[in-house]
Design goal:
The chain is α/β, with parallel strands linked by helices. It has one domain: Rossmann fold. The chain has ten helices and nine strands. Strands 1, 2, 3, 4, 5, 6, 7, 8 and 9 form a nine-stranded mixed beta sheet that branches. Helix 3 links the parallel strand 1 and strand 2. The chain is globular.
């Protein structure tokens, strides 16, 4: 993992606005919907590890929960601190750190969100170490929610955006499909990442001492629609899309068409 490269990427290009429009908006709506299924009554204790610019943190704080925010990017931490100063629903804690070495209260959190860390760790040993580290912070009956980018995301995006006509992007996609390791030559095509095949997510979590409760497609194929922003603005069309996503979210035969996949897990007490 090129941790400095990733930190520098988000320092230069913070995620401000990414989850507010189009594909990002659908990702945000769907992810929150899934998280709410597992939330205890407020106030519960939530860790947002790798929380970006705090979109999920502030949403959950608004619901009355105690939210701890951690992110490796100094710029994103600064953005969250500024917003927290203006917010009526304060975050409990804002820290700069990462999933591999953060020290937090053991067995404390009812929900841990890891919306980015595990698609930025290319080395499976580091992903395992990160999962084990988070396990120490999770309450015995708590839930870990981990996000993944699909192995096939860059291929689909390449054709939807027209990037595939660029030979360097085509080469990048070929590497993504072969190994999952995404190593772009410029910021134009994201940053260092690992794109999971849907079939490898459950074994990876199981080997780190978790029992997976749900594996869910987030956006399905809807993220590829040219008119997605317009559809989401209409109440009836938005409701229709979300209803269809609820129906197909567990279907493994098409799960890889989703840009993002969420796993919801608990500590496997028989294993740990």
């Amino acid at each position: 993992m090129k941790i400095n490269t990733i930190d520098e990427y988000y320092d230069r290009i913070p995620e401000t606005g990414r989850l507010k429009n189009g594909t990002g908006k659908l990702e945000f709506i769907r992810t929150n919907s899934i998280i709410r299924r597992y939330l205890p009554e407020p106030p519960c204790r939530i860790l947002d590890m790798g929380g970006g610019v705090g979109m999920y943190s502030f949403y959950l704080a608004e619901l009355g929960h105690e939210v701890w925010f951690v992110d490796p990017s100094a710029e994103q931490v600064s953005i969250v601190k500024d917003e927290n100063g203006e917010s009526k629903n304060k975050l409990h804690s804002i820290m700069q750190g990462d999933v591999l070495k953060q020290d937090l209260p053991h067995g404390y959190f009812d929900i841990i969100l890891a919306m980015g860390p595990f698609y930025h760790l290319q080395d499976n040993r580091q992903r395992a170490a990160g999962l084990i580290n988070l396990r120490t912070f999770l309450a015995p009956e708590g839930f870990l929610v981990t996000a993944y980018i699909s192995r096939f995301a860059s291929l689909q995006d390449g054709y939807a955006s027209g990037f595939i006509s660029n030979p360097s992007f085509q080469k990048l996609v070929e590497g993504d499909l072969k190994t999952g390791c995404h190593d772009p030559e410029s910021d134009k095509y994201f940053t260092t990442a690992y794109f999971h095949h849907p079939d490898e997510i459950i074994p990876e979590l199981s080997s780190a001492g978790y029992k997976v409760k749900d594996l869910l497609a987030v956006e399905g194929f809807f993220w590829l629609l040219d008119d997605l922003e317009e559809l989401l603005m209409g109440e009836n069309e938005r409701a229709k899309i979300l209803s269809f996503l609820d129906t197909i979210e567990k279907d493994r035969s098409i799960m890889g068409t989703s840009a993002h996949i969420l796993a919801v897990s608990q500590i496997d007490k028989e294993q740990v």
